[in-house]
């Protein structure tokens, strides 16, 4: 079993670190929030007072931080604190460019590295059922895979440095666009006098089927577990969807890719966020689309 340092113990990182403990690893955790540090001790994570203390004996370091700037700052510090050969895994959702820079920092210090963002939300983090999309060298993936398996159920090696982040933002661009499409269809159906259940029964088994309707239906009733049945409590907050759509648009601009629907989806979620709904589930955008 390995000595692991876990930096960033928030909504996702806390339960992920707890699952590494459950799998028998020794985990030292650090977070800027003293309150969070106190609370993770109950799950068997040993609280550290700094990144330096957390990584002192670590064979692997996992980071789960808000944005690219946080990851580059933390990795920039910790590469001089760990032994060569240490595996660094970043599970945050960040821009592809920062992910590639983080790999360069690791390589410069003789460390192995993976970008390994996740899908599955806080529920998946708690239940260890996350999907991991990993980017990095084969030997880094081979070393990291058993640890990712302790926190998730589907682990995909997407390619070289940054490929995990690329897969994540492409997937979430599909999700943002498809949710708006499903919401528009329900809003149109309502105006045409169609019941939610009738549209669901047809579209969820026909060519309109997708995760946004079949699993996460944005109106109450047809899928009882979807946030629409719970006042649009997240789930997946609209602000996080906006963050991921913005990352997709930055990447599209840098790569010269045309993503007109991705751009439109980003604008609509930006408007929804500016109207004060960033903390609600992203499927609540149906209320704005009803006009
Ligand atoms: P969060 O804000 O709950 O947690 C981030 C934690 O990082 C905070 O506790 C913060 O104190 C800590 N932190 C920031 N800078 C630090 C530093 N320098 N050193 C130590 N700790 C530091 O966020 P979250 O919901 O856990 O999300 C983390 C990442 O996972 C984000 O990139 C997010 O986009 C991604 N993600 C979130 C979800 C979700 O449903 N919440 C789903 C998939 C991916």
Q: Let me know the average pLDDT.
A: 97
- Secondary-structure-derived class: alpha/beta
Record field, number of beta strands: 9
Query: Strands of the largest sheet, in order across it?
Result: 3-2-1-4-5-6
Bound molecules: nicotinamide-adenine-dinucleotide
Total separate domains? 2
CATH topology of the largest domain, which one?
Rossmann fold
Task: Provide the CATH top-level class of the largest domain.
Answer: Alpha Beta
Helix content: 40-55%
Low-confidence stretches: none
Element pattern in H and E: EHEHEHEHEHEEHEHEHHHHHH
The CATH architecture of the largest domain can be named as: 3-Layer(aba) Sandwich
What count of helical segments does DSSP give? Answer: 13
Radius of gyration: 20 Å
- Shape, please? elongated
Provide the β-strand percentage band: 5-15%
CATH superfamily of the largest domain: NAD(P)-binding Rossmann-like Domain
C-alpha termini separation: 55 Å
Largest sheet: 6 strands, parallel
Catalytic activity: 3-hydroxy-2-methylpropanoate + NAD(+) = 2-methyl-3-oxopropanoate + NADH + H(+)
Pfam family, one: NAD_binding_2
GO biological process, one term: L-valine catabolic process
InterPro entries: 3-OH-isobutyrate_DH-rel_CS, 6-PGluconate_DH-like_C_sf, 6PGD_dom2, 6PGDH_NADP-bd, HIBADH, HIBADH-like_NADP-bd, HIBADH-related, NAD(P)-bd_dom_sf
């Amino acid at each position: 079993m390995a000595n692991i340092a876990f930096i960033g113990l928030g909504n996702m990182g806390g339960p992920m670190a707890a699952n590494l403990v459950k799998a028998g690893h020794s985990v030292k955790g650090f977070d800027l929030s003293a309150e969070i540090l106190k609370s993770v001790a109950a799950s068997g994570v040993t609280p550290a007072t700094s990144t330096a203390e957390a990584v002192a004996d670590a064979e692997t370091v996992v980071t789960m931080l808000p944005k690219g700037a946080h990851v580059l700052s933390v990795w920039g510090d910790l590469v001089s604190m760990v032994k060569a050969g240490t595996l660094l895994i970043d599970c945050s959702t960040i821009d592809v460019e920062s992910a590639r820079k983080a790999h360069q920092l690791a390589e410069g210090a003789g460390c192995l590295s993976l970008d390994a963002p996740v899908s599955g939300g806080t529920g998946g983090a708690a239940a260890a059922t996350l999907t991991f999309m990993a980017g990095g060298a084969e030997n880094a993936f081979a070393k990291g895979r058993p640890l990712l398996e302790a926190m998730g159920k589907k682990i995909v090696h997407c390619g070289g440095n940054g490929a995990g982040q690329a897969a994540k933002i492409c997937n979430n661009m599909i999700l943002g666009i498809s949710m708006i499409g499903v919401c528009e269809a329900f809003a149109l159906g309502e105006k045409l006098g169609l019941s939610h259940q009738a549209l669901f029964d047809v579209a969820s088994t026909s060519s309109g089927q997708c995760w946004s309707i079949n699993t996460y239906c944005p109106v109450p009733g047809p899928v009882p577990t979807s946030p629409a049945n719970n006042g649009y409590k997240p789930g997946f907050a609209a602000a996080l969807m906006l963050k991921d759509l913005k990352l997709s648009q930055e990447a599209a601009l840098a790569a010269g890719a045309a993503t007109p629907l991705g751009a439109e989806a980003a604008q609509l979620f930006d408007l929804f966020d500016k109207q004060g709904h960033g903390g609600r589930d992203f499927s609540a955008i149906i209320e704005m689309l009803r006009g």
